[in-house]
Structures are given as structure tokens and as C-alpha cells.
Design goal:
Layout: H1 22-34, H2 37-56, H3 67-75, H4 91-105, H5 110-121, H6 134-146, H7 156-165, H8 171-185, H9 195-205, H10 212-219
Helix pairs in contact: 1-2, 1-3, 2-3, 2-6, 3-5, 3-6, 4-5, 5-6, 8-9
């Protein structure tokens, strides 16, 4: 899609601004320090995509959603795939717990911490996140946009600018590698019918072959 401006009045090469609050900066530092570059870039791109989606829908920051919470939940959503967040539950829940601990330590009020926890814990739960409030929905859909889903409204120039700033670095493969590596060491992290269990099954059944997630992402708008 080629347009000169988007629905928020930005030119086709401008990106939404990341929140400049002290907590947002600390969160960005944490993710860049604790996660691989591929996962950190994916998380930041997801936050930007979620903001683009909110603007496209005409949602007003501060009235219809909280832009800081949206940034925090998107940017921290894969913390469970870092050593900091690698515990004994499915990675979404481990990540939500680690994010909640970090945000609580920074003084974020409990109700706001709980909102971020829920959005992270549900981000890999299709059909549930979308019906769990605006924050959960925007987080899940923003993450999905980084896999190439639901991006028709995004100008080509915006996509190019976003990926020039935060390169993809074989994101889907890096994500799959991290999920599967954790599950092989800790089987309890792959409960039946979870995304982790499916990725582990595919990698085990066909070593060296791309999983369905990797193949779909590679074939999508942004590639792997």
C-alpha cells in the first residue's frame, strides 16, 4: 500500500514516537539488554505496529487506551524467552510474571501492572486476547502485524522505515529457536495444545525444516 500520509497525519516514512517516560526508557533498556537483538527488535516493532493500528482505528491515546501500557506490554511480551524470565511455566506466563516483577519494582501501581500482565499472558491466545479489552487486543494484533498479518493499511514507506530502524534478523526462526530450546530443557513449559508444544512437535518431527510459523512469516509481507 503506497500512501503519502497515514491516518495520524504522519508521512509515509515517519514512525510513531516511543513513549519518553522514565519507565518506558528503563523498559527499553531492559529488553535490549536481556533479549537477543532479533527478539528485542520484534518486541519494539510490535509496539510500533500496535500504535499504528490504534491510530488507524481512530483510537485516541489517553482516552481509548493508555499508550504507555501498550508500549510496556508489547515491548515486554517475550521477556519469558530471556534468561531473566525463563522459569517453569509456558513462556507467555513466565514473561508476564517477570514483567510484573520488573514493573512493580519500578513503582507502577498494581492495577496497571495487572493490565500489562494480562496482555502479555494472553498474547498467544487467539480468540481470547481479542475479547479481553482494548489493551489485550491491540497487543495481540500488533504482535501479529510483525508476522505480516493485518498490515494492508500500513504505507510501504512506514514499513521500510520501521525495518531499517529495527531489522528483522530472521525473527520467526529466532523466536522458534528460543521457544523450542526452553521446552527441550523444561518440558513443563510445553503444555499440550500450546504454541510451544506445537513448535516443539514440528521441530522434532522434521529437524532442519521450517515450522509452519516460520514458513508463513517468510511468505508474509515483511519476510522472516
Amino acid at each position: 500500500m503506497n500512501t503519502d500520509t497515514d491516518t495520524a497525519g504522519r508521512t509515509a516514512t515517519e514512525l510513531p514516537e516511543l513513549p519518553g517516560t522514565p519507565l518506558a526508557r528503563l523498559t527499553l533498556d531492559l529488553v535490549l539488554r536481556e533479549e537477543t537483538a532479533a527478539l528485542a527488535h520484534h518486541s519494539i516493532r510490535s509496539a510500533l505496529f500496535a500504535r499504528l493500528l490504534a491510530d488507524h482505528r481512530g483510537a485516541h491515546p489517553g482516552r481509548d487506551y493508555d499508550p504507555e501500557l501498550l508500549f510496556l506490554a508489547c515491548t515486554l511480551h517475550d521477556l519469558g524467552l530471556s534468561e531473566l524470565g525463563n522459569r517453569h511455566q509456558r513462556f507467555e506466563v513466565d514473561g508476564a510474571d517477570a514483567a510484573a516483577e520488573f514493573l512493580t519494582a519500578q513503582g507502577l501501581p498494581a492495577a496497571r501492572v495487572d493490565a500489562v500482565w494480562q496482555a502479555i499472558a494472553l498474547h498467544a491466545s487467539p480468540g481470547i486476547a481479542e475479547r479481553s479489552g482494548t489493551l489485550c487486543e491491540l497487543v495481540r494484533l500488533g504482535i501479529g502485524m510483525d508476522f505480516g498479518r493485518g498490515t494492508d493499511f500500513v504505507p510501504d514507506g512506514t514499513g521500510a522505515a520501521l525495518h531499517a530502524t529495527y531489522p528483522r534478523l530472521s525473527m520467526a526462526t529466532s523466536l522458534t529457536d528460543a521457544i523450542v530450546a526452553q521446552a527441550r530443557l523444561r518440558p513443563e513449559k510445553a503444555p499440550a495444545f500450546s504454541i510451544t508444544a506445537e513448535l516443539l512437535r514440528e521441530r522434532t518431527a522434521a529437524p532442519g525444516e521450517p515450522t509452519a510459523l516460520e514458513a508463513a512469516t517468510t511468505a508474509g509481507r515483511w519476510g522472516n
